[in-house]
Structure to design on (606 residues):
């Protein structure tokens, strides 16, 4: 197995990057950084920067960048696991032998393909004439091109230049498709996924580029397009900028969560570095668990409009379930973090962060302003609005404080409120690798009772179809994203199915699941075996269509402008009709349609 991420992070944090690089490069302290001549292109001026606060190095001439592991890989020719072990040996951390994978990581060719694409995209932004519009766009948004290069931003031109370049490097076409860099049209031709877009590289926890978010620069749809799910990129389990924000998060003891790429970029440029963003989706259970491991407190800095408030409280409840203390910073009307900091600098944002209040207090504040605590009927409605946050609070002290506050504010006794909560208790948190205390009683069907999720039955139905006929997994692999599953057990099972050996038995999937999900998997297998030989065509089609429509409905609901919502509804409805779910696997081409591929999986506002 791989070296666990927590050990990798422990090794990275313990390493003295200045001392390591200083053995080969004479460095001089300049402000918060250290400067020297670049060893990669043989420079003679101090264009090579070592940034201890970020744990990275960067050359402003040849644009070589990385962390302490990348340094050993580039300078000593080591592979990634060996580089980690070498740094661990240097800092005195022992990596257990059982934590080391036997043999190379089978995903390494995908990492290499995406890394090569990142280098090429970054070079296009710096040098290509076609990227002039992208460079002007960055200047208009007051983002220095030098800093954009330092942060790895890139540009994807039109045409097939990227594919031709990577093919010359010996990367086969199917690997480009699997990595999300290319796609096949219905006529069988290969095309680049990103075209005429400003690209934001997305890194995993180890700092490796695994995907991209692309902002369209010209006319067309959609404004934002993310990389598709792949063996190395699962957007529901990652956070944008987390690889760079980790040291600052530990120093601050808090995570600042914003909505989009430009919000993160603006704050980082202003020196506020403990900031991350979900990757175009609502904050997921996996992302909340990741934040919990990093810091005890999260500050939510979303837009203050209706859509932003909905996202704020949904994210807040998710974080509360994981025992994170949640505070909300309120932006002035019409502002987002990017525009606020552009106008007022870091000081304007820091003032807002100092005034951030607890997520429950923010809910009460909004309800009070709208008169929800006036009159018996309104107070009942106000309580209904507050109950989800009370139930989400898993920390006993936070929950007790919440109960006391709400009881006084609504004007009911604490005993009555606690009775209401006991009638519908706190939902247990189900995350991979974490056992659930006091699990709910078993049911005869395979729909978990842990959380009421619209469409949960259809998620189970789709998985049963895959269990009964594994050929459906190949159809699902190319069309159904992992984050379309909202029941934690089903999401974990689907992820294990996608990661499983395509030629291996389904029963082996159980070995990849956390213990709390194995019962649900066993029930799925059992229920599918009882109807062996049944034709699952219609059931699979209905379930897939239901998941697709649920995602489209939420995307449409998140749009702010009514006219845009109506237009988008017609467009997405037409695309959904073109999905042709009723086709059997043998009849259904796995190649996506142009309309489907050009739609962003979840647009972000900038």
């Amino acid at each position: 197995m791989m070296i666990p991420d927590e050990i990798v992070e422990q090794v990275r944090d313990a390493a003295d990057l200045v001392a390591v690089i200083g053995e080969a490069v004479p460095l001089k302290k300049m402000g918060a950084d250290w400067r020297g001549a670049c060893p990669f292109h043989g420079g003679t001026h101090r264009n090579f920067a070592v940034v201890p606060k970020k744990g990275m190095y960067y050359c402003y001439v040849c644009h070589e960048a990385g962390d302490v592991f990348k340094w050993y890989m580039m300078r000593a020719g080591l592979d990634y696991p060996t580089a980690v072990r070498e740094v661990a040996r240097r800092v005195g951390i022992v990596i257990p032998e059982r934590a080391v994978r036997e043999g190379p990581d089978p995903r390494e060719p995908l990492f290499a393909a995406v890394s090569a694409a990142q280098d090429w995209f970054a070079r296009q932004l710096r040098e290509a004439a076609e990227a002039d519009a992208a460079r002007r766009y960055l200047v208009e948004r007051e983002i220095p091109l030098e800093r954009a290069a330092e942060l790895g931003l890139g540009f994807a031109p039109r045409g097939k230049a990227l594919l031709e370049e990577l093919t010359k490097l010996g990367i086969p076409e199917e690997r480009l498709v699997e990595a999300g860099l290319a796609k096949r049209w219905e006529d069988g031709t290969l095309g680049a996924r990103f075209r005429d877009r400003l690209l934001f590289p997305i890194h995993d926890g180890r700092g490796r580029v695994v995907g991209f978010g692309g902002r369209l620069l010209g006319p067309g749809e959609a404004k934002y397009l993310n990389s598709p799910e792949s063996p190395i990129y699962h957007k529901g389990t990652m956070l944008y900028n987390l690889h760079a924000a980790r040291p600052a998060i530990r120093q601050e003891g808090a995570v600042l969560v914003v909505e989009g790429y430009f919000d993160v970029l603006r704050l980082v440029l202003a020196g506020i570095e403990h900031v991350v963003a979900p990757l175009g989706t609502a904050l997921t259970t996996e992302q909340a668990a990741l934040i919990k491991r990093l810091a005890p407190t999260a500050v939510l800095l979303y837009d203050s409009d209706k859509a932003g408030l909905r996202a704020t409280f949904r994210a807040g409840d998710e974080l509360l379930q994981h025992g994170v203390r949640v505070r909300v910073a309120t932006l002035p009307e019409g502002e987002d973090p990017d525009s606020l900091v552009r106008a007022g600098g870091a000081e304007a944002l820091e003032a807002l962060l100092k005034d951030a209040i607890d997520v429950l207090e923010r809910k009460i504040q909004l309800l009070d302003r709208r008169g929800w605590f006036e009159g018996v009927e309104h107070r009942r409605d106000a309580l209904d609005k507050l109950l989800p946050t009370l139930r989400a609070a898993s920390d006993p002290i936070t929950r007790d404080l919440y109960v006391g506050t709400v009881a006084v504010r609504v004007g009911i006794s604490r005993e009555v409120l606690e009775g209401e909560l006991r009638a519908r208790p706190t939902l247990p948190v189900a995350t991979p690798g974490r056992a659930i205390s006091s699990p709910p009683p078993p049911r005869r069907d395979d729909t978990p009772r842990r959380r009421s999720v619209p469409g949960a039955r259809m998620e189970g139905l789709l998985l049963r179809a895959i269990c009964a006929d594994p050929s459906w997994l190949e159809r699902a692999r190319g069309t159904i994203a992992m984050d379309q599953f909202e029941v934690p057990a089903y999401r974990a099972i689907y992820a294990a199915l996608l990661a499983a050996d395509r030629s291996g038995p389904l029963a082996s999937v159980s070995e990849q699941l956390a213990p709390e999900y194995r019962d649900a998997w066993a029930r799925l297998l059992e229920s599918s075996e009882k109807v062996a030989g049944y034709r699952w065509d219609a059931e699979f089609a209905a379930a897939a269509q239901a998941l697709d429509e649920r995602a489209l409905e939420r995307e449409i609901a998140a749009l702010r402008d009514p006219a845009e919502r109506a237009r988008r509804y017609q467009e997405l409805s037409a695309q959904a009709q073109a999905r042709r779910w009723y086709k059997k696997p043998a009849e259904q081409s796995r190649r996506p349609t142009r309309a489907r591929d050009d739609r962003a999986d979840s647009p972000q506002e900038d």
Notes: The CA atoms of residues 72 and 86 lie 8 Å apart. The longest strand covers residues 209-216. Residues 237-355 form a domain with the Dna Topoisomerase Vi A Subunit; Chain: A, domain 2 fold (CATH 3.40.1360.10).
